[in-house]
Amino acid sequence: MPCGPGPARPREPTFRALFTAPRPEPSGFAHPGPCVYTVAVEASSTQPPEPKPASHGTDERLTDREARTILVTGAAEFIGSHVSEALVARGDTVIGLDNFDPYYDPAIKRRNLSDLSADDRFSLLEGDIRDPAAVEEAFTAARPVTGVIHLAARAGVRPSIERPLDYATTNVDGTVNLLEAARRHEVARFIFGSSSSVYGAANTVPFSEDQRIDRPISPYAATKVAGEALCYTWHHLHALPMVLLRFFTVYGPRQRPDLAISKFAHLLEAGEPIPQFGDGSSSRDYTYVADIARGVLAALDSNLDFEIINLGSSSPIRLDEMIEAVGQAVGVEPVVNVLDNQPGDVPRTYADVGRAKRLLGWEPRWTLAEGLREFVAWRRRMSAEA
Q1: Exposed, middle or buried: residue 162 (CB in 10 Å: 0-12, 13-18, 19+)?
Q2: What is the mean pLDDT of the chain?
Q3: Model pTM score
Q4: Number of neighbours of residue 383 by Cβ within 10 angstroms
Q5: Cα angle at 216 between 149 and 127, to 5 degrees?
Q6: For the stretch 2-22, what's the b/e string if a residue is b when 16 or more beta carbons lie within 10 angstroms of its beta carbon?
Q7: Could you read off the pLDDT of 310-348 as tens digits, one per residue?
C-alpha cells in the first residue's frame, strides 16, 4: 500500500537550490576520544537549530531497538561489511544484500563477513540490486525493514571510463529499484552512499555540500550525481526521509585491493616500485573506515528529512606524502616510478565537514598515520592466517 503524503511541509526547494541555499555556520563540538563503531552526539554550548522531522511512515521505529531491521546493500564489500558489523554490535538486525561481483576476488568479500556470518542478527541474501525480484526478497525475507543503507555500487573511476554501461545499470537502475522498494515498504529512513567524486575538478576548497555538482569528470561520478538526484526525487514525491552521504577516499582494513593504499602496501612488501601518477601534488582527503561507519550510523539515527552531508577527514594529504606515509607504516622506503596523470582523476578532494558536525555530531577521529598502522597490522594478520 503506498505511503500517504504525511503532514504538511514547507514547499520543497528545487534540486539545484539544495546546493546553493545558504547554511548557518556550524556550532562548536567537543572532539570525542578515539572509539570504533560508537555514535555519540556531543553537546554544544550553542544548540543548533532543530532539524525538520521525518514525515514518512512511523519514525519511532528507528528508535525502538527491538524492532530495528536494517537492509545494507553491498554488505560484503569494504565499507558495507564495517557498517554491518557496527549495526549488529549495537543490537540491530541486519539483512545484507550482495551479488559478490567478480570485479575483485569474491573470496575476499566472503572473508569480510566471516565474523558476521556466525551472528543470528545478520542474514545474507545473494542477489543483484539490478534485479527487482532480488530487491523485493530482501525487503520481505524477514521482519519488516525499518531502514535502508544503500552502499552497493560499481566503484572505481578508471574502470568506469572503459565500462560506462555497467556503471549506469548498477548505480542508476539498481538505485531506482531500491528506492521503489523502500517506497512500497514505507521504510523510516534511506541512507545513500555517495562520493566526493561528484564535485569533479572543483577549484573551491574545502568542498561544501552547497557547491554545484553538474560537472562530473568520469562516468562513475556521473552515476553518483544521478543517484543523488533520484534520491531527492523520491523524497520529494513520496516523503521518504533521506540522508545522502558523500564519502571522501575511504581506507582501512578490508580496503579493495585495487585502491591506492592497498596496492601500494602490497608493492612495498614485495619490494616493487610505486607507480605515482603525476608530479605527486594531487591530494586526497583520506578518511578511515571506522569514522565512515560512525557517520553512517549517525545519519541512520537522525531525524533529518532530507540532507546531503560530507564525511571526510577535512585534512587533505598530497599523493607523494601519502606514499611516504604508507612506506613508514610498512617499514620500507618507497621507490617511486613517476607516470603521466590518468584521465578521470580529480586534482584534489577536501571535505568541509561543518554540516556533519552540526547535524550529526560527527567529526573524524583517526589520523592518516593511525589508520595506516591499523591497516598494515590487519594486512599482516590476514597474511598469517592465509
Answers
A1: exposed
A2: 86
A3: 0.84
A4: 9
A5: 30
A6: ebeebeeeeeeeeeeebbeee
A7: 999 999 999 999 999 999 999 999 999 999 998 888 899
pLDDT for the residue 386: 74
* Residue 259 confidence (pLDDT): 93
Residues 70 and 34: their CA atoms lie apart, in Å, by 26
220 is catalytic: yes
Confidence (pLDDT) at 316: 96
Give the span between the Cα atoms of 355 and 209, in whole angstroms. Answer: 8
The whole-number mean pLDDT for each consecutive block of 10 residues of the chain, a chain of 386 residues, reads: 39 36 33 36 36 40 66 98 97 97 94 94 97 97 91 94 96 98 97 97 92 95 98 98 98 95 96 96 97 98 98 97 97 96 89 98 97 97 88
| pLDDT at residue 368 in the model | 97
**Domain assignments of the chain as residue spans, ordered by start:** 45-250+288-312+346-365
Q: Contact, 48 vs 354, CB < 8 A?
A: no
| Cα separations in angstroms, 133 against 30, 125, 223 | 46, 12, 22
SS3 assignment, position 230: helix
The DSSP code sequence of 177-198 is HHHHHHHHTT-SEEEEEEEGGG
Pairing type for strands 147-150 and 242-247 reads unpaired
d(CA 191, CA 279) in angstroms, rounded, equals: 37
Catalytic residue among 199, 220, 232, 251: 220
Considering the four listed CATH numbers 3.40.50.460, 3.40.50.150, 3.40.50.720, 3.10.270.10, the one that applies to the domain covering 45-250+288-312+346-365 is 3.40.50.720
**Could you tell me the end-to-end alpha-carbon distance of the chain, in angstroms, rounded to an integer?**
50
d(CA 26, CA 354): 5
> What phi and psi values does residue 97 have, to the nearest 5 degrees?
-120, 125
Alpha carbon distance 187, 67 (integer Å): 12
Instruction: Compute the distance between CA of residue 246 and CA of residue 235 in angstroms, rounded to an integer.
Output: 18
At 19 the three-state DSSP class reads: helix
